[in-house]
Amino acid sequence: MASQGRRGGASLPDRPSKNQASGIVAKLSQSPIVSKGKEVAGDAALVTKKLLKSTGKAAWIAGTTFLILVVPLIIEMDREQQLNELELQQASLLGTPTTMGPPPPK
Q1: So where are the chain's domains?
Q2: Which has the least CB within 10 A, 3, 35, 50, 94?
Q3: How many Å apart are CA 4 and CA 2, to the nearest integer?
Q4: DSSP code per residue over 21-41
Q5: SS3 state at 98
Q6: How far apart are CA 71 and CA 67, in angstroms?
Q7: Torsion-angle region of residue 31: left (phi > 0), alpha (psi -120 to 50) or beta?
Q8: What pTM value is reported for the model?
């Protein structure tokens, strides 16, 4: 039998291995400027990650504090306002004066 070779099609040129540095892109990617840029970008990403993490913690603390302290206060103030309006309505229906200040001196 005859040895079997490649069948049809165009053959592509062999690619250089990763260990070989050939071409402009490879030379640029190994330059000290690019490596320093990668280092700075990595540092910036680390700082950004830490900042977002601490900001998230601060937002959690502020949000839960608001829910625990401020929301019940708002609800209570709304109830008080509704109660005052109800008393004013009842007073106007019964014909009593609707002044909210102290009674006039006698």
Answers
A1: 25-94
A2: 3
A3: 6
A4: --SHHHHHHTSHHHHHHHHHH
A5: coil
A6: 5
A7: beta
A8: 0.42
In the block, tokens 């840029």 appear at 37
Quote the pLDDT of residue 9. Answer: 58
Give how far the C-alpha of residue 5 lies from the chain's centroid of Cα atoms, to the nearest Å.
59
How does pLDDT run across 44-95, given as a tens digit for each residue?
999 999 999 999 999 999 999 999 999 999 999 999 999 999 999 998 888 8
Indicate the residue type of 49.
Answer: K
Structure tokens at 23: 């071409």
CA distances from 55 to 1, 15, 51 (A): 74, 47, 6
> Structure tokens of 40?
């700075």
Read off the tokens for 58.
């601060």
Sign of CA dihedral 21, 26, 29, 31: positive
Tokens of 99: 């002044």
Question: Which pair of structure tokens corresponds to residue 69?
Answer: 């302290």
